Amino acid sequence: MLRTGVGWFRLIAVAEAVSWAGLLLAMVLKYGFGFPEAVTVMGWIHGLVFTAYVVVSLVVYGPLRWSFRVLVLALIASVPPFGSVVFERWALRRGLLTTPEPLGPTSLSRLVGALRALN
């Protein structure tokens, strides 16, 4: 599963939702039971996983040939609690998490080619 960008995306999407749940639980511990360290720890963990989700979304955008709209939806899905899992399930049902057959150069490969031509 972790040998492909899709596998990493799916894992990080679920981890992001789990870290959201942990952060919500930590907020209950902080405000309900006076344990503010819980939010400090879970906030830090959630921040790392959130950042990983955004980075992995940007990395798989090109190889999976997502439209810009799908990329924006993936990024917006990271904001509400458990939105990353909702997006992951939606993308899986629509076939957006399967690597398409090579159709030609991606925008990234064209950019790399143009930069190499400048050297």
UniProtKB/TrEMBL annotation:
Any one annotated GO CC term: plasma membrane
A Pfam family it matches: DUF3817
Membrane topology: Multi-pass membrane protein
Domain DUF3817: start-end pairs: 7-92
Keywords carried by this UniProt record: Cell membrane, Membrane, Transmembrane, Transmembrane helix
Transmembrane segment boundaries: 6-29, 41-60, 66-87
Annotated localization: Cell membrane
Protein name as catalogued: Integral membrane protein
Native organism: Actinopolyspora alba
